[in-house]
Amino acid sequence: MQNFIHPTAKIGPNTAFGANCYIDANVTIGADCQIGHGVIIHPDTTIGSGVRIDDHTVIGKRPMKAAASAITKEETLPGCTIADRCIVGTLVVIYRGCTIASNVLVADLASVRENVQIGEYTIVGRGVTVENKVTIGKRCKLETEAYITALSEIGDYCFIAPEVTFTNDNFLARTKDRFKYHKGVTMKKGARIGANVTVLPGIIIDEDALVAAGSVVTRNVPARKIVLGSPARVWRDVPPEQLLENQ
């Protein structure tokens, strides 16, 4: 029931630990943090002040590379950084090389891979997976069990409903040509996606566009338009009262 804190770790005042925590070399944790039971924080991680990390979460995990991996590379990654006043739930895994800005919530069972950046006040919901080489802007909402594939870009103020799936491989793991064309999904500022939507590789969802629930997006979505169906087609304009500028 004892904690291990490496001699090189730096712990701020009024930071409290539960039982069975493991804090590795060169970790920095700011003041007034709450670290739950069984938390593991890997080397070189930097955590700001006022951060809450719940039970059995792993911060700064090294990535794994399969022999046939198309995107993950052997590389030297900086330590994970989590800024002030973030909340990280139970059984979350956040990888080395990830940067999380202030006031972000990462809910229970979520996974955030390496080379990911998340902007301030964004919510990463329960069970969400954010793969590697993804950028997420500020004040976004990624709801339960959304899947954000590698090489995607999500702008500020975007909304992604539960069970949304992004894709990045039009070749479905066949032929060597697939390595040339891997590309994730791009969401521009204020774009929104409804529940159970699938978005094909390389698609751009433009500013303030809306994808209706259950759609399959096979072509770019114009700004301020609602698309729906399988394949998704333009239905009508986004109502003015829903536009980001009018919030």
Low-confidence spans = none
Structural class, please? mainly beta
- Name the helicity range: under 10%
What fraction of residues sit in β-strands? 25-35%
The averaged pLDDT comes out at 95
What is the number of beta strands? 33
Which CATH class of the largest domain applies here? Mainly Beta
List the defining traits of the structure above.
247 residues, mainly beta, UDP N-Acetylglucosamine Acyltransferase, domain 1, 2 domains, twelve-stranded mixed beta sheet, ten-stranded parallel beta sheet, 33 strands, 2% helix
Q: How is this structure best described in words?
A:
The chain has 2 domains: 1-62 and 77-126, Hexapeptide repeat proteins (UDP N-Acetylglucosamine Acyltransferase, domain 1, 3 Solenoid); 140-247, 3 Solenoid (UDP N-Acetylglucosamine Acyltransferase, domain 1). Helix content is 2%, strand content 31%. The protein contains 1 helix and 33 strands. The protein has one helix at residues 178-181, and strands spanning 4-5, 10-11, 16-17, 22-23, 28-29, 34-35, 40-41, 46-47, 52-53, 58-61, 81-82, 87-88, 93-95, 99-100, 105-106, 111-112, 116-118, 123-124, 129-130, 134-136, 141-142, 147-148, 153-154, 159-160, 165-166, 186-187, 192-193, 198-199, 204-205, 210-211, 216-217, 225-228, 233-237.
